[in-house]
Amino acid sequence: MFDKDKWNEILQALSANVFRTVLTAFGVFWGIFILVILLAAGKGLENGVMKDFSGMSTNTVFLWTQNTSKPFKGLPKNRSYNFKNSDVQALRENFPNLMYISPRNQLGGYQGSNNVIRGTKTQAYTVYGDYPELAYQESKAIVKGRFINYNDINQKRKTAVIGEGVISGLYDKGEEILGSYIKINGVNFMVVGVYKSKSNNGNAEEEQKQIYVPFTAFQQAFNYGDVVGWMTITAKDGTSITDLKADIFRFLRTRHDVDPDDERAIGNFDLYEEFSKINGLFVILKFIAYFVGVLVLLSGVIGISNIMLIVVKERTKEIGIRRAIGASPGTIRSQILTESIFLTILAGMLGIAAAAGVLAIINAILDNMDSEGMMFANPSVDLGVVFSALMILVFSGLLAGFIPAQIAIKVKPVDALRAE
């Protein structure tokens, strides 16, 4: 029940020395402000980094063959070998927890020899032979036409999907892209799609200068037989590819007569493992933000506690009179705790409001900037963080007022009335 007299008394007590009250409240204001800003900054950094993983299956491992490091079954050390088409089907049959298995081949490379011709223009690009599943595993957006499909795979169609960077090197402004032909190592391919990479890393420009053709057409056109250069393997949700890859490697080593303990024979890059490390880093950053913010907030709470001790000392005679006319210890304790909580929550809510204003300004600035390649985006805090901050404030107010309240209820009426 709202007690008007009680709240008038609280406001009168806090406004008796406005300058002291403002300085005291500033500690809590600054603590909660720092906490929200640190959490929002961490979230902004996380959003920026995660943009680089958007559209990408992070539960993925890339694997390729390397020379063996041990002799096995009469076969020599340092033997080279290749994955085959049959390995892909064998993995599908023996590992039901795998979602995508994409065999890949590559022609050319960064700053490689000229291998793509259109009319009188010649350029050097990386050409990949891929399956349609790659569209779900890598962060690429089709801006015109389509990506490779299974009709291309089954019929070994000589189709190609090119990056926006390829267009600037091979086409004149205004030329029709879709349906045109490019010659890759002397073989004509029809362009059926144009992609744009979503990546924000330092290789984004080079990733726009790549060409994708059907895996089967690649093998046929460039005399690769049934050789698979490497594979991109993604596990189903709920299954960690990191936990599964040891069994996959063991299975492939057995198929190619490689020593089961030869760790060097299969190279790999575990994207899920790297992604987990990044997630772990953001967990640590969030912990640091809470740790630093709470420490700063605690210093403000200590300041409020000290001021409340002074207030109790100044109001010793008042407390004594109230005790003498029948006020219970619980009433006195409630009065002191309410003053402490009210001051703490008021200062804290102003801190949250100020932080929200600063974040709104930062987001408005970021919205008007070119975010391409930026590793910081949309710094914000969710409702859960605001609720946690409110709980911290309530607890802080109770903590700040507890000791002064306990001292207040121990004041004896006779001693208080004698105090000067």
TrEMBL record:
For this UniProt record, the keywords arranged alphabetically read as follows:
ATP-binding, Cell membrane, Membrane, Nucleotide-binding, Transmembrane, Transmembrane helix
**Which parts of the chain span the membrane according to its record?**
21-41, 287-312, 341-366, 386-409
Indicate yes or no for the key word Cell membrane.
yes
Q: Where is the MacB-like periplasmic core domain?
A: 21-248
Q: Where located? A: Cell membrane
Instruction: Give any GO molecular function from the UniProt entry.
Output: ATP binding
The source's superkingdom equals: Bacteria
Report domain ABC3 transporter permease C-terminal positions.
Answer: 291-412
Which GO cellular component term is one of those annotated? plasma membrane
Topology relative to the membrane: Multi-pass membrane protein
What family, per the record? Belongs to the ABC-4 integral membrane protein family.
Q: What is this protein called?
A: Multidrug ABC transporter ATP-binding protein
Q: Which organism is it from?
A: Flavobacterium pallidum
